[in-house]
Amino acid sequence: MRVEPATRPVKQTPADAPADADKRTDKVPRVADQAEPKTARVVSPARTDRAAPVRSSPVTRPRTFGRALLATAAATLVPGVGHLMLRRRRSGTLIVGVFVLLVLSAVLLVTTASRATLLANLLSTRVLVLLAVGALVAGAAWIAVIVRTYLLARPRPLGFGKQLVGVVVTAALCLVIAAPFGYAANLANAQRTFIEDLFGGDTGGTAAAEAIGKPRLNVLLVGSDAGPDREGTRTDTMMVASIDTRSGRTILFGLPRNLGHVPFPPESPMGKKFPDGFYNRADPLSGDYLLNAVYAWGRDHPQDAPATPTTDPGLNLLHQTISYMLGLELDYYVEVNMAGFAALIDALGGLWVDTGPNPVPVGGILPDGRRVKPDRYIPAGRQLLNGEDALAFARSRTDSTDYARMGRQRCLLQNLLTQKSPTDILVNFQAVANATTDSVSTNIPQAVLPSLAALAGEDTVRLESIAFDPSLPDPSRPDGKFSTARVNTEYMREVVQRAINGQPLPTVEPTATPRASASASVTPTPPPTGPQSLAEVCG
């Protein structure tokens, strides 16, 4: 087999190229042609006519000074609305939602909770602290939203004049919010301070835990009168309020200031000094040995008075005497200066009082007992009395008796409780606090206040009254009337227990009297057979 030697390819020149080279080059693609895609994308004529979507930035209104002030004002009306106007939807919705939630919660609380519950909370110092702090925080947050809204909305740059106007307007809007919230915080804090001052400290009365669980609370009410026209202090108004803590039924036991031979506990210093009662044999007609003089005796002779429940020996001695005389354990006391009582009536806007069929004289009796012309008269009928006139109505002695005056005082208490609710006291709190700060003292503890307020907030509260005066029948007396000249302690205790237990009072058998003439048609008032409703007596 023959093998031919390998030969090297001969490089051809263009001239040596075969004649059919052009034909082959037409069939072999060029390098440039190989780089191109082998298949071309066919575009439909319909797609070439459709425009591709174009993303655009959100259209925002240009910032203007007027729009900035408008957004700031909107944030003052409802926090968060200004943010929504500036298209800050997320933060604006959050702020508005929190605001609406808080408003709805407050409305729901006020409309669903009972009045007694609301009053009890408003007399709690802890709740008052939370209200004060909450008012400050809420006000500060609202102000921050207003300021932030303006800073976001104001255009830049801004001329000095517009900057000044913007700052002034924003500050004024902030003050619109700061004023009510600051007032609310100050009111809550002032009320807390008032409660802590008046009802704080070592009370010396019944412990709060024990008092809340007791079926009855007995409170001594004392109206003292010290003025430039009289020497020393006299307790012209003395009552004991016996309160049923479940039903709210309250009995006022009225004690005339002219009770004589008032007793003291036998083992006490006064009981040993006056074993037959408070009386001076050397001067039997002296007014210095009546019930209203016990307070002054304790002040002048502190060694004769017990050390509790207060630091005032005069009040301690009176407290001991009345407790022993009525056979009641007195849980607390409330002492009111009569001038402070007048200021309290003014603070509450006055009282509507039925003064009776005849005008009531103001003045007319001097401190030494001499009669002079009255200074003026309070008109008869239903009258709106200010503090001065209400006090004059309660104290008037001209053409009257101590017992009639006691009745007017009890009617004033009835009118005060029925016409002025605890809500009125809260609304006029600043004036009430100013009127009572230096004229009211008590040993009622703070912890008992919510329970008493809850009781006062109920509609079942009613006042009844028994006065230890000659209108009270006393079967042990020859004339069948209670004697104020020499008190019958055992009978007084019996009356108290019968009244508390809802039993009828002892009655007196009618005695035969001469037949009255035909012209005498006045029917005598029957003696009371039980506690009298002050709502019916006072009209």
UniProtKB/TrEMBL annotation:
Question: Where do the coiled-coil regions begin and end?
Answer: none
Protein keywords: Membrane, Transmembrane, Transmembrane helix
Low complexity composition-biased segments? 510-523
In terms of InterPro entries, this protein maps to: LytR/CpsA/Psr_CW_biosynth (IPR050922), LytR_CpsA_psr (IPR004474)
Show the Pfam families listed in the entry.
LytR_cpsA_psr (PF03816)
Ranges annotated as spanning the membrane: 93-116, 128-152, 164-185
Q: Where is this region: Disordered?
A: 1-60, 499-539
Residues of the Cell envelope-related transcriptional attenuator domain: 234-419
Give the classification, highest ranks.
Answer: Bacteria, Bacillati, Actinomycetota, Actinomycetes, Pseudonocardiales
Entry-linked NCBIfam families: lytR_cpsA_psr
Give the source species.
Pseudonocardia thermophila
Q: What is this protein called?
A: Transcriptional attenuator, LytR family
UniProt similarity note: Belongs to the LytR/CpsA/Psr (LCP) family.
Which residues lie in Basic and acidic residues bias regions? Answer: 20-39
